[in-house]
């Protein structure tokens, strides 16, 4: 089961990653070029997935939109992991102290504000853009990685090899970096995959309400928003970007499940 999930998830994720990379070199048609004479055309030999209300090729839009979604989600996960992991390690090292309490209460405060609300606050100040969407999603990812890292680290601080390191004279920072972090990396990889899929969903949601990437940059969420009044006579405008979001998120979740089963020694013993 885990191998099947890993293969299917890796294949689906790889297809959209390849599409995003290919869009840097080639797309069927220029996504900034309007062709009103060929607007809202169904799938055909000239336009495999049809055209939108401006005559733009939907396949080209999805390919460039994949680039946008992956970039936003990847940087947002990087922000969450880059800040959340050190905070989680610090909280675990000072378990029960004021630093641990301050970090955890700060996490609770961030969790009280969904990423959409954070994005609204940020865009109200700085304006709507892909950068602000990245910041909003990244801020929401910080407590996720902080809590996960703290939870995994706390169980390790009671282990004999950590006690041996303390007896050898190693400080909390050195133990966290040399012994704790390598042993929670598997958890972080799996969670990073899951947060990556959630980041793509969040980017699509923010773009759908106009808070993500702005025109003329294609975005899967804005493609759905543009198609919502045309579903009755141009269903392909909503179908294909919706399927792109669905398959990408499904692939990443299956990939995360497969990695979890392979990297978790307790699950390996159960198989």
Describe the protein's topology.
Blueprint: H1 2-23, H2 58-93, H3 98-111, H4 115-126, H5 130-157, H6 160-167, H7 172-208, H8 220-227, H9 236-263, H10 265-270
Helix pairs in contact: 1-2, 1-9, 2-3, 2-5, 2-7, 2-9, 3-5, 4-5, 5-7, 7-8, 7-9, 8-9
Task: Summarize the structure in words.
- The protein is mainly α and 271 residues long.
- It has one domain: MetI-like fold (Orthogonal Bundle), CATH 1.10.3720.10.
Question: What are the key terms here?
Answer:
single chain; MetI-like fold
CATH topology, anyone?
MetI-like fold
| Overall SS class | mainly alpha
The major β-sheet equals:
none
CATH H level, superfamily name: MetI-like
CATH class assignment: Mainly Alpha
- Count of individual helical segments: 10
DSSP helix fraction: over 70%
Could you say which overall geometry the principal axes of the C-alpha atoms support?
elongated
Number of strands: 0
Tell me the strand percentage band: under 5%
Mean pLDDT: 89
Give the structure's gist in a few sentences.
The chain has 271 residues and is an all-alpha fold. The chain has 10 helices and no strands.
């Amino acid at each position: 089961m885990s191998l099947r999930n890993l293969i299917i998830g890796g294949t689906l994720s790889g297809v959209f990653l390849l599409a995003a990379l290919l869009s840097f070199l080639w797309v069927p048609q220029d996504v900034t070029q309007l062709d009103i004479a060929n607007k809202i055309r169904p799938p055909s030999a000239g336009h495999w997935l049809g055209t939108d209300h401006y005559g733009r090729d939907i396949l080209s839009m999805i390919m460039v939109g994949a680039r946008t979604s992956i970039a936003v989600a990847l940087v947002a996960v990087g922000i969450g992991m880059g800040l959340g992991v050190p905070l989680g390690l610090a909280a675990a090292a000072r378990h029960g102290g004021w630093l641990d309490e301050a970090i955890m209460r700060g996490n609770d405060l961030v969790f009280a504000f969904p990423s959409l609300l954070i994005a609204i606050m940020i865009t109200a100040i700085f304006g709507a853009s892909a950068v602000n969407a990245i910041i909003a999603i990244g801020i929401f990812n910080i407590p996720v990685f902080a809590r996960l890292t703290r939870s995994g680290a706390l169980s390790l601080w009671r282990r004999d090899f950590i006690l041996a390191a303390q007896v050898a004279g190693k400080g909390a920072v050195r133990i966290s970096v040399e012994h704790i972090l390598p042993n929670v990396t598997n958890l972080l990889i799996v969670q990073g995959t899951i947060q990556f899929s959630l980041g793509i969903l969040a980017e699509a949601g923010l773009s759908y309400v106009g808070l993500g990437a702005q025109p003329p940059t294609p975005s899967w969420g804005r493609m759905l928003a543009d198609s919502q009044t045309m579903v009755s006579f141009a269903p392909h405008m909503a179908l294909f970007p919706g399927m792109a979001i669905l398959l990408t998120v499904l692939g990443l979740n299956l990939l995360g499940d497969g990695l979890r089963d392979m990297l978790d020694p307790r699950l390996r013993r159960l198989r």
